[in-house]
Amino acid sequence: MKLWRWIWLLVTLGVLANGFRVAMFVVPPDAQQGDVGRIFYYHVPSWAGMGLFFAINLVCSLVYLGVRNRNHELAMKADSLAVTSAEMGVVFCLIGLVTGSLWGRAVWGIWWTWDARLTSTLVLWLIYVAYLLLRRFAAGPQMRTLAAVMAIFGYLDVPLVYMSTRWWRTQHPAPVFGGAPGNGVAPSMMPAIWWNLAGWLMWGIFVASLRYVAEYRTQRAEQQEALKALDMEHVIEAGR
Amino acid sequence: MKAAYFLTHLAKDLRLEWRSKDAINSMLFFALLVVVLFSLAFDPTRAVSRQIAGGILCVATMFAAVSALNQAWARELRNQVLDALRMTPAPGASLFLGKALANFLFVTVVELVLAPVFVVFYNLQVIGNGWLLLLVLPLGTWALIVNGVFFAALSMRTRNRELLLPLILFPIFIPALLGMVMSASAILTGESDPVLWIKMLAAYDVIFTTACMMMFEVILHAE
């Protein structure tokens, strides 16, 4: 690992440790839910991470489709970042679903309910798992094009899923940030949110950078292998 | 896109189906089996059946359509027909539109045959505006077919393509399925207003038809 990555890791661990301290011991317990409400500080960063990584996935897929025939190097980078961000987004989404489920059990008394937000995030998770499955099943460079198209379709589907499940039914509280008046977060709770948000996003970026490098090197090695095979063919042709 | 091209593709697909009748026969029998299995598994009473019938009809059509969609492009792979199609000067979007329209007609025929069977098996009596079903069924079917034909083309050259198609189609199709089921049950029970859901279905159709037409060229020439 390069030096800057070690530094990034150390800073991330420090921020996460401080985030844990602030969330657990510094900020006051929730007015209605008591200490159970502290899971909020882990629930929200996972959604932020999911939003960030799925957005990166969309941008990279668009870039890939745009440059795949002109700039091979950039296309390979975009595709590596797309698969990395889809994987990270799926992980963050899963963490969000699990923490939400634990929280729901404590506060609502049920593990799961077919509410608008829960359903739409579950569907989102399913779409991106399907995206990753497609990447596994398809082979060769055409797979990258197909996957990029699939990513765009998945992203197009998100608002529709959200609107449809919203009309269907709703139990989850209205958006905490930018929601109805009187539904915000008390200023005393904000430090815990900021620390954990920063910490988990930094952690996500750290893991993603490792995964990205691994994926990029694999793709480059495959490409060099293919080029070498082509060269061999030329040599054999020349020998004849 | 010239109209003549997609009409040529459509005519070719219809002629193929007319001579073999593979897709329609297998879909019909499959959907019939699903309907029978559901009514045996749940044994619905009259009131309950009215609430769940819309959903069962949609799910039965969905499974049946997937079994046929898997074959929609496979028949082009034989004798390298697809490669020939890729070399023709016709735009990819017209090939897609012809294929989608043909499959839409097949599934519609299946639905029309199945609907009376359904009414008999489930003792249905429509309470709401029955004629709205004539709007809901084509909209929902088109939503299924337009994405299904697209993703069938997408998964055509992958390993396990028959397995992959439902895996990537169903998550994307969920909002349309919800719209179809909710509007169908709203019409059958007459308890709520289906207009909102019909609008959503229409929006879904417009968005995904546009996206499919724009992206199909990329899929067709993916190398």
* Low-pLDDT ranges of chain B: none
Quick one: how many beta strands of chain A?
0
Distance between the termini of chain B: 24 Å
The largest β sheet of chain A comes out as: none
Pair with the biggest interface: A-B, 31 and 33 residues
- Would you list the SSEs of chain A in sequence order as H and E? HHHHHH
Helix content of chain B: over 70%
**Could you tell me how far the N terminus lies from the C terminus of chain A, measured between alpha carbons in angstroms?**
47 Å
- Shape descriptor of chain A: globular
**SSE pattern of chain B, N- to C-terminal:** HHHHHHHH
Number of helices of chain A: 6
Low-confidence stretches of chain A: 178-182
Number of strands of chain B: 0
Report the radius of gyration of chain A as a whole number of Å: 22 Å
Range of strand content of chain A: under 5%
Based on secondary structure, the structural category of chain B is mainly alpha
How many domains would you count in the coordinates of chain B? 1
Helix content range of the residues of chain A, please? over 70%
Return the structural class of chain A: mainly alpha
Query: What Rg of chain B, in angstroms, do the CA atoms define?
Result: 18 Å
Count of DSSP H/I helices of chain B: 8
Architecture overview:
- The complex is a heterodimer of chains A (240) and B (223).
- By secondary structure, chain A is an all-alpha fold.
- Chain A has a domain at 36-172 and 189-215.
- Chain A is 79% helix and 0% strand.
- Chain B is mainly alpha-helical.
- Chain B has one domain (3-220).
- Chain B has eight helices and no strands.
- Chain B has helices spanning 3-20, 22-42, 46-77, 81-87, 92-121, 133-154, 161-189, 195-220.
- The A-B interface holds A 65, 123, 126-127, 129-131, 133-134, 137-139, 141-143, 145-146, 149-150, 152-154, 156-157, 160-161, 163-165, 167-168 and B 147, 154-155, 157-161, 163-164, 167-168, 170-172, 174-175, 178-179, 182, 196-197, 200, 203-204, 207-208, 211, 215, 218-219, 222-223.
